[in-house]
From TrEMBL:
A single Gene Ontology CC term: cytoplasm
Protein origin, superkingdom: Bacteria
Annotated organism of origin: Copranaerobaculum intestinale
UniProt protein name: Bifunctional chorismate mutase/prephenate dehydratase
Residue ranges constituting the ACT domain according to the UniProt record: 277-354
Site (Essential for prephenate dehydratase activity): 260
One Gene Ontology biological process: chorismate metabolic process
């Protein structure tokens, strides 16, 4: 046997073992798909995929093979997702805004195999999921620069829905114009108020009229339709391609850490992860909030975030949102929740998620 033949005999033997291992893996994936269908969980789990890749790369002895093995792992999980999609059927996911809006970009990344449908408002996304028209909704929750999306937080209090997942999308704002436009031609700039405030420093260098618009993608669409070179929009690069615009200035947001946290809303609550979030309301007496903070500290939970928002039906009264490090499945968390239920008027556990530390 020459060297080539010998190597091929070895490859054949390895492929045979891999075929058996592939069948075993797909049986496990089949169980995952059945669980995800029964519990209405999304197929893609980004944090799990990252963990699978990280762990498996550590098993390799030969460093130079790591990028190749990573490709194998990514492909294997793509196959796994295709198989699950076939088993579960197509999921319906809604997002607010138009094609090219950041919610659409987040929804595409979170649900690459789903059927995506746009709605006009955040509330329509909540309504579609609550009435069962859609299984999931992807809505913005918080921006690292401009803070929470208050309306979405309010809907979480009033709708009987939970947070199924949390996804951080790096946001890059760009100045979009009709092809051939110069900076000197621009007189008005259109965009969503959050995108405007994220790009404030850039905008302050010019004397343009800045006009708030429903969202970044509709602003880009409007500029494209007017065919007026004195108008520009602030939006994502993807939006430029969609509406035939040109990126005149890239990356105009003040902070390059600009990230928007999107949430996946669903009727089901996610129960695994290293962090969880709750909403609560209090009796309007002195020291109530301090008592809740004390309980959280006494039970040894690290609080990552706290926000307060006005209650719609009780002027000058507020509800609170907190994010705590810990596992919902841990009995200690159940103890804390019981203690909070005694202390608060209403407690709503929104769900768990995997937060990346640092
Ligand atoms: O563990 C899961 O949740 C799976 O669906 C399995 C699997 C995989 O094949 O390893 C596939 C898709 C997910 O994005 C993560 C991992």
């Amino acid at each position: 046997m020459d060297q080539l033949e010998q190597a091929r005999v070895e490859i054949n033997a390895i492929d045979k073992e891999m075929a058996a291992l592939f069948e075993r893996r797909m049986q496990a994936v089949n169980d995952v798909a059945a669980y995800k269908l029964a519990h209405q969980l999304p197929i893609l789990d980004v944090s799990r995929e990252q963990a699978v890749i990280r762990k498996n790369l550590e098993y390799l002895q030969d460093e130079s093979l790591k990028p190749y093995f990573q490709q194998v792992l990514e492909m294997m999980m793509q196959v796994s997702r295709d198989f699950q999609k076939h088993k579960i059927g197509q999921r319906c996911v809604v997002y607010p805004g138009v094609e090219g809006a950041f919610s659409h970009i987040a929804a595409k990344q979170l649900f690459p195999e789903a059927s995506l449908h746009q709605v006009y408002t955040f509330e329509e996304a909540f309504q579609a999921v609550e009435c069962g028209e859609a299984e999931f909704g992807v809505v913005p929750f918080e921006n690292s620069y401009t803070g929470e999306v208050g309306e979405v937080l309010d809907h979480l209090l009033y709708y009987d829905l939970h947070i199924q997942d949390v996804y951080d999308l790096k946001i890059q704002q760009n100045l979009l114009v009709l092809p051939g436009t110069d900076l000197a031609d621009i007189k008005q700039v259109y965009s969503h108020p959050q995108a405007i405030s994220q790009s404030r420093k850039f905008l302050d260098c010019y004397h343009w009229e800045v006009i708030p618009y429903t969202n970044t993608a509709t602003a880009a669409k409007y500029v494209s339709e007017t065919k007026d070179p004195s108008k520009a929009a602030i939006a994502s690069g993807e939006t430029a391609a969609l509406y035939g615009l040109e990126i005149l200035k890239e990356h105009i947001n003040t902070s390059d850490q600009n990230t928007t946290r999107f949430i996946v809303i669903s009727k089901q609550m996610r129960s695994f992860g290293n962090r969880f979030h709750i909403l609560f309301t209090l009796r309007h007496d002195a020291g109530q909030l301090a008592k809740v903070m004390q309980l959280i500290a006494e039970y040894g939970f690290n609080m990552e975030s706290i926000k307060s928002r006005p209650l719609h039906d009780q002027p000058w009264q507020y509800y609170f949102y907190v994010e705590l490090d810990g596992n919902i499945a841990d009995p200690h968390t159940a103890d804390l929740l019981r203690a909070l239920e005694k202390q608060c008027e209403k407690v709503k556990l929104l769900g768990a998620f995997n937060a990346r530390k640092g």
